[in-house]
Amino acid sequence: EKWPRGDEKTWKDAIRGVASDTPTITKSIVNHVQTSLARQPHNLDDLGAYQASALSVRDNLIVNWNETQLHYTRKAPKRAYYLSLEFLMGRTLDNALLNLGLKNKYNDSITGLGFNLEDLIDKERDAALGNGGLGRLAACYLDSSASQELPVWGYGLRYKYGIFQQLIAPDGQQLEAPDPWLDNQNPWELPRLDVTYEVRFYGHAERTENGRAIWSGGQEVLAVAYDVMIPGYDTKNTNNLRLWESKPKRGFDLNSFNAGNYEQAVESSNSAAAITAVLYPNDHTTFGKELRLKQQYFWTAASLADIMRRFKNMEKPISEFPDYVAIQLNDTHPTLAIPELMRVLLDDEELSWAEAWQITTNTFFFTNHTVLPKWPIPLMEQLLPRHMQIIYDIVTVEKQFPGDRDRLARMSIIEEGIPKQVRMANLACIGSRKVNGVAELHSELVRTTIMKDFVEHYGVSKFGNVTNGITPRRWLDQCNPGLSTLITESLKIPKAAWLKDLYKLEGLLPFAEKADFQKRWAAVKLSNKRRLAHYVETTLGVSVNTAAMFDVQIKRLHEYKRQSLNILGVIHRYLLLKTLTPAQRKKVVPKVVFFAGKAAPGYFIAKLIIRLIVNVARVLNSDPDTKEYLTVFFLPDYSVSLAEILIPASDISQHISTAGTEASGTSNMKFCLNGGLLVGTVDGANIEIAEEVGESNVFFFGHLTPAVEDLRYQHLYHPVPVEQKSPALAAVLNEVSAGRFGDGGVYEPLLNTIRQHDYYLLTDDFDSYIRALDMVDEAYQDRTEWIKKSIRTTAKMGKFSSDRAIQDYAQEYWNIESTKLENGTA
Ligand code: TH1
């Protein structure tokens, strides 16, 4: 390659700084190449060019960030804090460029320097500090908070290793490797080595007087702040996500060091660093692991100390804390913040119990995303002795619930048993101002089942719903620029107008009837399918038929999400294809089925489902009779970035959880926003999507939530063999057993979950699932009608903007207001 890449004069002018017409951005990038990276232009590779560009973009963010924080400090509005153990941010460069409105300018400069912006964007590693929907929701909410100029900060942990990297062995098994996302340096974070707090574990809590106690001894660990800048879209407001890293308090434990015990000293320093070493890769389930509880306390204690310090800087009476601070608990994971705030108010601020409890219960808000984790009391007592005292005090002082003994037992924070356990959801509910679920159906289930007794006690107004949302900046403008451009041109309003008020997409409805628009709409979809095909070709080395229907299911591997139903349906379709003559096959809609998703490393059945998918793919993709009509791909290492390629390319996506098990789902919204149709069960946010787009544009199937309990009961006490319930499914299971997709014996444990208790109702839903897929085929045959459905679907997605969700939280929960940074306010 010649020196320099790109235009020699551009580089030389920028380096010398002589030419007055060198764009500022070019100068800034070149300056970072020379000074921050200490590299020469002549050997700069894509990674270096990415880093220099990122540092240059970051300079813009830092200025806005600083001004925003100063503005918030001066205005002193009430602030909201979003406590989440997961923030699944994905990549930042492209998003920052779009939010800053600088993408075209950077594109020009980077091109001038001989690089391709899209290639540089591809060099960034995902920040994958989350498992799935819950973590990505937190990331969308940060984008919407900043975009609406709301004073909201996120608080989380800076894991050294995010969600593991998934590899697929030739036999189809999932393998896990660490995700060293920080290895290349992370330009998007600012270490705040001066912002630190000490966090204590273990030791003794001695009650003194007036309900106070002294907690001492044990282990002390330091929390160090790292700040991630969160740019709003089309505004200067830039919010903050503060992530904590753990480190030993003095580098080494000096006592053991002096006593000549070097090894023990190093060990204790390791144990401090271990707290934020790795994200727990379990979606939904994390059973009594001590380190997980340590993470939860470490993070809530540091965050609360930081929030308290910021509040105290305002010099307001402590009783006004809830007038300036709202704290949202993202699921039960940060519930320890409740006893921790009580501890600070009682032991440090020396308030009475009543005052402390009044403040606490007016500060917290609790979002429930699922069913109920617990912690064993012996572990809690050892690790957090003072908090256990406070929890017992809450039980005795606060909650003298009336009613019979069963009801009291259900509502108690303490669950009897061996060992006794702390029910985090009950504690979160009792200690919060309001509780919400994440979709209408889910919030109704919260009110009528898991929190029924609390609804009767506190009244229903404490229990609300905020249906989840997604940010249209990342999930349309960024991931689908072709569609974004088409929409803007057609609506004849500025892009920012509809991206900030997604209901404006309704303006697309009349275009659904216009042949020319339909053509352009279809052309965008096709080019997105080609982009995905190109990705598959370069990563898996196989070609993909872009004329086929693209059918996508991408989410964590879970029995309740029923990827098993999908793959068994694929086998059914395959068996059917095999019975057809070549002439008959030609009438079938060709289909490519994509799967992606990670299984928790210890979740045996979920890993078996992956193995089955991979082996079905192997057989189908090489069958000359059928491969033109049906192929299957399992794309390894699902991530936010991969979702950004898959979602815009989908014709249909699958959201097929057993009714009543998926609290909301959020990818369903992303697919529909990008004009993909949906096949799904009557569950989570699918229901509200259908309400918006009309049932004729959604392919529903399966039993409804109220039937699920009864069916499970029947499975246990009046089982009917699969052969009778669904001969089609029985035939599929037999083929798998017989070894058509590799050693059948391997799959027996999976097949037995279906043959035996079938907790997730595959045998009940299989036939109606197949019928729904037939309807999908039928609808797809009439391509014009399909495109109309696709356009109408996008047009009706306004409700699912995370801007709407955040407005709801801001008004109905946090009581905070927009605090806009005007040009030159700071
Ligand atoms: C998910 C829910 O399963 C999903 O339906 C919902 O759309 C999403 O949250 C956002 O609300 C959950 N993820 C987790 C992860 C953990 C624990 C509980 C849940 S619920 C670790």
TrEMBL record:
Q: Name one GO molecular function term.
A: pyridoxal phosphate binding
Task: Report keywords, A-Z.
Answer: Allosteric enzyme, Carbohydrate metabolism, Glycosyltransferase, Pyridoxal phosphate, Transferase
Q: Which GO terms describe its cellular component?
A: cytoplasm
- Cofactor(s) the protein needs: pyridoxal 5'-phosphate
- CDD domains, alphabetized: GT35_Glycogen_Phosphorylase (cd04300)
What top-tier enzyme class does this entry carry? transferase
Q: Which GO terms describe its biological process?
A: glycogen catabolic process
Q: Which InterPro entries match?
A: Glycg_phsphrylas, Glyco_trans_35, Pyridoxal_P_attach_site
Q: Which PROSITE patterns match?
A: PHOSPHORYLASE (PS00102)
Q: Which positions does the record annotate as the modified residue N6-(pyridoxal phosphate)lysine?
A: 670
EC numbers listed for it are 2.4.1.1
Catalytic reaction list: [(1->4)-alpha-D-glucosyl](n) + phosphate = [(1->4)-alpha-D-glucosyl](n-1) + alpha-D-glucose 1-phosphate
**Family (UniProt):** Belongs to the glycogen phosphorylase family.
Tell me which PANTHER family the record gives: GLYCOGEN PHOSPHORYLASE (PTHR11468), GLYCOGEN PHOSPHORYLASE, LIVER FORM (PTHR11468:SF3)
Q: What is this protein called?
A: Alpha-1,4 glucan phosphorylase
